[in-house]
Amino acid sequence: MKLSAEQLLAIVRDYWPSEDLDAYCGFKRTPEQERFDELWKRELEKIDRWRAFLASFRAELPEFTLSDITAPVDASFRCGAYAKADPQQPQREWVVVGCLSILAPVYTVYGVQYTDDGKKRSHELFFEPLPPKMRAPADLIARRIEARFEATALPRELAETPIPLYVEPRKPPDTTLFHALFIGDPERLP
Q1: What whole-number distance in Å separates Cα of residue 176 and Cα of residue 159?
Q2: Neighbours of 13 (CB within 10 A)
Q3: From CA 81, how far away is CA 61, in angstroms rounded?
Q4: Which residues of the chain fall below pLDDT 70?
Q5: C-alpha span between 102 and 136 (Å, rounded)
Q6: Has this prediction a pTM greater than 0.85?
Q7: Is 107 helix (H, G, I), strand (E, B) or coil?
Q8: Cα gap 96→79, rounded to integer Å
Q9: Are the C-beta atoms of 167 and 16 separated by less than 8 Å?
Q10: How many Å apart are CA 96 and CA 126, to the nearest integer?
């Protein structure tokens, strides 16, 4: 089922506050935070299903380390397909991330490349179209999520829709449906 930006915004409004960031981060718990925490309590009962899902195709990605990188502060189950180190470019690492939203039947796959010059680590995010080296693992993860969870890919144009909500560490006008449905800080990886 394809959902519109308006339908997705109506869903995420239940879980992310539109209040001032100070109130959101303070001692006061918003009703949206309470609903989000309650939803995660229910969703964590399904974590074994997510991990079994990852185990079911781990062998199909022999050149990657496939890990569960779910954090119940984000709005999605997440996995990371970490590329094994390239001896030609040891300072460059990259990972393909698959996200299955707990808020709506949608998913996304994106890439992150890290560059470490010995003094600082920088990153670059990649969305569709992904660089050639990221496409094969991204396609496999996408097909598997669609088949197992009957989720649909969130189109990039919908993902980039600005929303008036606070999704840590994002605040309006820099918050998008992507942040609310998946993760506020997509480059944050273990």
Answers
A1: 7
A2: 15
A3: 8
A4: 1, 20-27, 86-91
A5: 25
A6: yes
A7: strand
A8: 8
A9: yes
A10: 9
SS3 188: coil
Q: Give the separation between CA 189 and CA 70, rounded to whole angstroms.
A: 10
CA distance 138 to 108: 9
Using one digit for the tens of pLDDT, what is the confidence trace for 35-46?
Answer: 999 999 999 999
- E-state strands within the chain: 64-68, 76-83, 92-101, 106-116, 121-126, 152-153
Give me the amino acid identity at 171. Answer: K
What whole-number distance in Å separates Cα of residue 93 and Cα of residue 42?
34
Structure tokens at 11: 């869903």
From CA 186, how far away is CA 190, in angstroms rounded? 11
* pLDDT attached to residue 21: 53
Q: Please give the pLDDT value at position 29.
A: 80
Each domain of the chain, given as residue ranges in start order, spans 5-181
Helix (H, G, I), strand (E, B) or coil at 94: strand
* Main-chain dihedrals φ then ψ at residue 88, nearest 5 degrees: -75, -30
pLDDT at 167: 94
Question: DSSP state, 109?
Answer: E
Q: At what angle do helices 132-149 and 47-55 cross, to 10 degrees?
A: 130
Q: What is the Cα–Cα distance from 179 to 155, expressed in whole angstroms?
A: 14
